Prior knowledge:
By secondary structure, the chain is of the alpha/beta class. It has a single domain, classed as Rossmann fold. The chain contains 5 helices and 5 strands, in the order E-H-E-H-E-H-E-H-E-H. It has a 5-stranded parallel β-sheet, sandwiched between helices.
Amino acid sequence: MDKKKLIFIVDDDPIINTLVVKRFNTEDYDVEAFETGEECLDALEKNPGLIILDYLFTGRSLIFENGMQVFEKIRELKPHIPVILLSGQEKGEVVLEFARKGVFDYIVKDSDLLDNLSIAIKEVFSRQT
């Protein structure tokens, strides 16, 4: 039997974190939620198979203003971990910048968020096997 795949969700919105944990914490996945980039980076030694990262942080993060900064630090420390970016906006220049830097997928926080995330998660892990 394969062991569960570890997924980190990093979002300063506790509702998003709760939704993602409840939806994807299954027999296949173990999901850990973090509200700041710092918390995520502190836990990187667990070697998650995927990190789902919010684009914009407000308030709690002391070091990182946005997901791009956290993404760049993840790339520096653990370049093999795929990252899916979540955002409440659809700015083309942001999407292109992340694509150029190697983000696996960019998903808009809309009514299809969980379904789109499900498709992207399956794609990430299908490429790893």
